[in-house]
Design a protein that fits this description.
8 helices; alpha+beta; binds magnesium ion; binds adenosine-5'-diphosphate; 32% helix; 293 residues; Kinesin; 2 domains; 3-stranded antiparallel sheet
Length: 293
């Protein structure tokens, strides 16, 4: 994340109507969200007007989302900057789908952000290499996969992925396992391994709801330069009272919300241009700050 004012962009993606909601409700074809005709990045819900940097309706494709908001980040990363793309929203609305944090291989149309980033980075690097025949030192691309669960960080690619590698009291944090990313097969294996180790629990909205915030980081390393692209699949926000969850599920909900609130505070401070950014209020924001150069 950069700290200048324009470094935070917000896009909203409308999820397609779920079949279960359409059945018996006569909702097919009914628009709950309306888009302003004058301004393409503005939407209207119940007469209230909301403006974003981008507003995508439910027919937007994965590739359109990528080209508009993530491809520019890849170009920045290849110039040596650290960047972060976060997916935020209620559970079941398509965050993991949009970010491509799924273990199953997807067809080209459905590929999400992570595999598209890798394709893009590898393509750009091979074009650069062709231009400069002497590519020394070589550029190395690798990935790490971290999850934040109950205010602790876990390395999902480590052999002991069930042991936290950082908690709130720890000031410095670094991922222990980087795996090489030479092609989509490498990525598929990393996602499979990491997702198997993620904390999930069925909820009323999603049979496989993530109970943690997950961060795939693509590292681009050339000599002394180390740029990171963090792709974050946040856990869905929870109405702790409304879900009626008790025990561990309730504690998970409280921690999920805490991370989300802290992200909110960090983004507000960054977009307001404050010099003090409250990274340290949650392990999620601490970890993301630790990834900055
Ligand atoms: P979340 O991560 O926000 O809880 P998911 O990404 O798991 O939600 O999405 C829930 C289900 O809806 C998944 O089966 C996913 O493939 C599907 N889905 C979500 N968004 C879309 C979309 N835009 N097009 C097609 N399927 C989608
Ligand atoms: Mg998910």
């Amino acid at each position: 994340m950069d700290s200048d004012k324009n470094s935070v962009l917000i896009a909203v993606r409308e999820a397609p109507m779920r079949k279960s909601l359409m059945e018996g409700n006569n909702l097919k074809g009914k628009n709950i969200i309306n888009y302003s005709e004058e301004c393409s990045n503005t939407l209207i819900v119940d007469g209230n007007v909301y403006s974003f940097d981008y507003a995508f309706n439910s027919s937007v494709t994965q590739s359109e989302i990528y080209d508009a908001i993530v491809h520019p980040l890849v170009l920045k990363v290849l110039s040596g900057y650290d960047c972060t793309a976060l997916a935020y929203g209620q559970t079941g609305t398509g965050k993991s789908y949009s970010m491509g944090m799924t273990a199953e291989p997807m067809t080209e149309d459905h590929l999400g952000v992570v595999p598209r980033c890798l394709n893009d980075i590898l393509k750009q690097l091979s074009e650069l290499k062709q231009q400069k025949e002497n590519d020394t030192p070589p550029t190395l691309v690798s990935a790490s996969f971290i999850e934040i669960y109950n205010e602790k960080a876990y390395d999902l690619l480590a052999l002991n992925a069930d042991q936290p590698i950082a908690s709130r009291s720890q000031r410095r944090f670094s991922s222990s396992v980087y795996m090489p990313l030479r092609n989509q097969m490498d990525l598929q294996q990393i996602l499979k391994l990491g997702i198997k180790n993620r904390h999930v629990r069925p909820t009323s909205m999603n049979g496989n709801s993530s109970r943690s915030h997950a961060i795939v980081t693509i590292h681009v390393i050339k000599g002394n330069s180390h740029a990171r692209l963090n792709i974050v699949d946040l856990a869905g926000s929870e109405g702790v009272r409304r879900t009626g969850n008790e025990g561990l599920a309730r504690a998970e909900g409280v921690c999920i919300n805490k991370g989300l609130l802290c992200i909110n505070k960090v983004l507000l401070s960054m977009s307001a241009g404050y010099s003090m950014i409250p990274y340290r209020d949650s392990i999620l924001t601490t970890v993301l700050q630790a990834f900055k150069s």
